[in-house]
Amino acid sequence: MHLKSLTLKGFKSFASSTTLKLEPGICAVVGPNGSGKSNVVDALAWVMGEQGAKTLRGGKMEDVIFAGAGDRKPLGRAEVTLVIDNSDGKLPIEYSEVAVTRRMFRDGASEYEINGAKARLMDIQELLSDSGIGREMHVIVGQGRLSQILESKPEERRAFIEEAAGVLKHRRRKEKAQRKLVGMQANLDRLQDLTDELHRQLGPLARQADAAQRASTVQATIRDRRTVLAAHHVRTLSENLHEANAETERLIEEREYLTEQLEEHSGELAEVEEELRTALEDAESARTLWYRLSAVAEKNSASLRIAADRAQASEETAWLGPDPAHLLERAERADAEQEELDEAVEIAQEKLEGIRETVAEAQDAARQAENEHLAQVRAIADRREGVVRLLSRQEAASERLANAQAEVERSEEAVGEHTEELENLSEELAEAADELADIEGGGEELRATAEQLAREVQTVEQRAEELRNQERALEREIAGLEATITGWQERLRPTDGAARATSAAEEQGHAVSTLAENLTVTGDWSAAAAAVLGAIAPTGVVTASDEAILSALEGSDEGRALVIEAGSETKEKAGWRLDAALPAGQWLLDVIEPSQEVAAALNALLVDVVAVADAAEARRLVAADTRLRAVTKAGSLFGPGWFAAGRGGATPAVELAAKIDQAGADVAEKKEQLADLKASLDAALETTAERRAAASSAKAAVQEQRARVQAAQHRFKAAENAEESARRSLERATVQRNQAEERARQADEELAEVRDRLSRVQEPEEQEEPSTAQRDRTAQELTQAKAMEMDARLQLRTAEERAAATRGKADNLRRQARQEEASRKQHEIARARREAKRQAALIVQEQAERVGQRITDALHRAQESRTLTEQAHRQWQERMRQQKAEVNKYNSQLGAVTQRAHEAELKRNQAQLKLEQAAESAMEQLTMTSEQLLAVELPEDFDQATARKELKQAEKDLNSLGKVNPLALEEYKALEERYSFLASQLDDVERAREDLNGVIKDVDNTILTLFVEAWHDVEEQFPKVFETLFPGGSGRLVLTDPEDMLTTGIEVEARPPGKKVKRLSLLSGGEKSLTALALLVAIFRARPSPFYVMDEVEAALDDVNLRRLIALFEELRKDSQLIVITHQKPTMDVANVLYGVTMRGDGVTRVISQRMKPLEAG
Which domain of life, per UniProt (predicted)? Predict the structure, then answer.
């Protein structure tokens, strides 16, 4: 077995596809440094499964892909294919030639192939491990690997021997078994926990199952006894119900007979009833008219108040602005004053011009006198100084004069510019002053108007707030009353059985109402009516006759209800009474006004009830006639030998109905008041809105006026500052001009003086002294002239300021007069509009007062009519009571029968209710209907007491069992099955764990055998190889822990000849390399490999040691193939094939091969 070829594509520097044809023996790869020789070694390691980027001399695995060089672009993948000759069958694969390929892409994906078929890295490693090639790659000795071998830990050196011995696949098998064992242990622990938990649960659950079995037997006994007792109870109640039905039917027949007799004697009341109805309608009409007139009176009062408010709010306000005529007069006076001031300015200017001429003449005279005097003095001096100096001074004076004249011209231009600017700014200042005066003139009137409107707004807002408070108070009262009515109505709604009856009637399409809604109690007899009707009013439902309602109630368990079948008879037709004399009081029916729907039923219910004043009268009345019942105003009800008094927690329905009617009337009255109040409030709000809008407009005008004033003041101030700045600039320019003129004048005078002195120097010499009289006289005249000029200037400045202050005043006053005239016209229009509104309000107020008087008269007449009609109505009521007394004797008999029938019906209902309750109880407890219970046959010797005793004993036995889990039996069976299943699974897992432990033990024995054999062979070969490389020296291998051959490490002891040291760190570089080679060669001899790769391992050796190493190479090539990267010529000499590796400027490696005949040794 040997390597046949190595093909590289895109691997490191091998950009192009390169194939190395390898042969048995020694294959030497030679070439200059950096040409890519070591890349061949990296390619061999990489294709055989190397995973470490550092081992391949890179930072990351992607570095093995050609990265580009020169003009060659980077490649996207690297591929290496190694072809192995397997003709001897050392590789466990049925091929004589095996091609291993590894391919890697830049995205990190890798591919492996064996003879072109996809494979895994593990497949390649296992394939090569049988030939002694493992993850440590001890057959490939790269650069720096020798030092790593010596510096590695003892345990790491052990890995080289294990790899050579083929232990790697056994260790991998052991590790896989250990991982399975760890996962199996977790499952085993989980199964053990579940089994223990189920075992703990089985005991209590078994006891619960036993209790459930016994409870089932006792429950059957209880059900049997309850069924027999319920059947007996239902049978007894059915018999009672049959007897009650028979009695009720008999009394109903008797009551129908008496009713027919009563109807025959009730016709006489028809005429009285008709008259009473007419009187009632008249009384209602009079009452309605009085209510309407009262409402009209209230509305008229509201209109009167609104008109008064509007008349007061529209009172005239006087004009507060200035008089336009007065402003025009002030403008005329301002024009006259302006003309006078302008004339004064002209006079002052003329006077100043005259004085200026006088000052100029005085200045000329003084200057001439001064010059003459100086000329005479200087002429005397100049004669002494000489002419030369005078000529020099003349030239300098001429130059100064020219400069001064140029400066004067520039100053004149500046003065002109500033003068023009000052004139423009003065005009702007005058315009700003005029604008400010115009704006300030109209501000006072606007402020006065705004203040007046603000006071009016405050007044009308106070009135509106008062009306709003009254409105809110009324709304709160109405809301409170409506909420109270709603609460009372909720309490009047049908509940329980009445609700069921209501629902049934509505389903049939009938109108439904309550009894309390169909009657009205007059006077203060509400408590009395509530005491008598209190038991039936909440459950009383008034609707049409329908059997569906009866069926719905009979089939419902929501409670009982009283259903009043709606009739069409009036109270008078149905109003018969008992034939009984009333020594005191009146019939309760006489104070109740029922609707037609309930008149007949209510008459039957209350025919025997008399309304009396107090309890004493009630007792006397029922004692005199036992057929009667008496009720007091306080609500106490009396009968023969009994009475009912007191009030419950809730207000009776009849009283609630009366309270609802009264509260409804109060709500209607207060709503009318609220409507009137809203009308007054709307008027007040309208006035408020008008005043607020006017005040807002006035305020906005004032604010606009203030803003205009501020803007005008700002413009005036800016113009004033600009004018002042321009004035100062003009003054500075004027001063500079005057100074320049003065310098020019001085230069001119100096030049004239020098010229004069030159002329005088040339005149004959005179010895007399010059006179000063003329000079002094002219100087005094000049001083007086300048004083007069200063006075004239002050007068002119004062006149100009006064004229400037009044300029434009007349125009401002005329403009203000025009504005005032326009404002006065607007005020007159607004005043006329307010006056019209006030007059209209006064007319409405006057009309409302007259209408109010008429309404008061009509209201008085309506009150009288109301009193008369109500009195007539009471008289007809009295006659009605007298007529009804004739019918009462028949009512008495019917009342007695009705009472007995009512009692019989109550008994029947009670029997029916008890039977229904017994049936419901049986259905709930036994799930048996009453028919099923009646079908139960009772024993002939049935004893209810004995059956109850047996039931009690069974219930006692069931209670003694305590709380029973009815599902305990099923749960126990399911839990027991699960426990058995988990126990069997636990046994299977434990057996599997024992099997894995046996596998691990067998693998350990195999590893131990292979390693021990390999160790003894390597231990035997190392001293021989060491002595070959170090003649006269000694070396050996030592186990770090001989007692534990599975984990022990290996130490290397080496003593070169002539040295006593054994520590490897004290050896030289060459000695370390030879020692490492000795260890590797010992391994190679002990467990030969098909091939070995050496990368410059002899680089640090001298010639002597190199020859010794070559001798070992020649010995190794007898059984193995050697691929050697070398620079040494002796090594090349023993090679069978030479591969020359070169790299040109493009950075791509190329290979040239040459078959060699090795030199004979010696």
Answer: Bacteria
Question: In terms of DSSP bridges, do strands 140-141 and 26-30 run parallel, antiparallel, or are they unpaired?
Answer: unpaired
Tens-digit pLDDT profile for residues 856-867 = 888 788 888 878
Give the mean model confidence (pLDDT) for residues 594-622.
81
Q: Is residue 38 a known part of a binding site?
A: yes
CB-based contact 222:954 (threshold 8 Å): yes
Rounded-to-integer distance, Cα 655 and Cα 663, Å: 12
Please tell me whether 34 is known to bind a ligand.
yes
- The whole-angstrom distance between residue 988's C-alpha and the CA centroid of its chain comes to 59
Dist CA 592 CA 1060 (whole Å): 142
| Residues 266/577, Cβ–Cβ less than 8 Å | no
pLDDT band at 511 (very low <50, low <70, confident <90, very high): low
Q: Please indicate, yes or no, whether the overall pTM of this predicted structure exceeds 0.70.
A: no
* Residue 284 in tokens: 């209602």
Q: Within 13 Å, how many C-alpha atoms sit on residue 131's CB side?
A: 25
Instruction: Produce one character per residue of 555-594: b if its CB has 16 or more CB atoms within 10 Å, e if not.
Output: ebeeeebbbbebbebbbbbbbbbbebebeebebbbbbbeb
Backbone angles phi, psi at 435, to 5 degrees: -65, -45
> In the chain, what are the domains?
1-131+1127-1162 (3.40.50.300)
pLDDT band at 1014 (very low <50, low <70, confident <90, very high): confident
Residue 768: what pLDDT?
Answer: 47
The residue ranges of DSSP E strands in 245-324, in sequence order, are: none
**Chain length of the chain:** 1162
What is the 3-state secondary structure of 908-937? Answer: HHHHHHHHHHHHHHHHHHHCCCHHHHHCCC
Per the listing, tokens 């309550």 go with 514
Q: What is the pLDDT of residues 969-991, one digit of tens each?
A: 677 677 777 777 777 877 877 78
What is the C-alpha to C-alpha distance for residues 30 and 810, in angstroms, rounded to an integer?
122
Enter the tokens of residue 852.
Answer: 């109010």
For the chain, what is the total number of helices (H) and then of strands (E)? 23, 24
- The one-letter amino acid code at 832 reads A
59 is in an annotated binding site: no
32 labeled part of a ligand binding site: yes
**Residue 115 in marked binding region:** no
* Predicted pLDDT at 118: 92
Q: What is the pLDDT of residue 79?
A: 94
**In contact, 1090 and 1120? CB cutoff 8 Å:** yes
Per-residue burial over 939-951, b = 16 or more CB atoms within 10 Å of its CB, e = otherwise:
eeeeeeeebeebb
CB proximity list for 1030: less than 8 A, separation 6 or greater:
1054, 1056, 1057, 1071, 1074, 1078
d(CA 701, CA 704) in angstroms, rounded, equals 5
Q: Please, are residues 1094 and 1123 in contact by the beta-carbon 8 Å criterion? A: yes
Q: What's the number of CA atoms in the CB half-sphere (13 Å) around residue 1087?
A: 27
36 is in an annotated binding site: yes
Nearest CA among 28, 29, 26, 24 for reference residue 2:
24
Residue-wise pLDDT tens digits, 1043-1095: 888 788 888 888 888 777 666 767 777 777 788 888 888 887 777 778 888 88
Tokens of 940: 């002939």
pLDDT by residue (tens digit) across 569-589?
555 544 556 777 777 788 878
Whether 35 has a binding-site annotation, put simply, is yes
89-114 pLDDT, tens digit each: 888 888 889 999 999 998 888 899 99
Residue 82: per-residue pLDDT: 92
Nearest CA among 1087, 1085, 1088, 1052 for reference residue 1071? 1052
d(CA 331, CA 150): 126
DSSP lists the bridge partners of residue 519 as 594
pLDDT at 135: 55
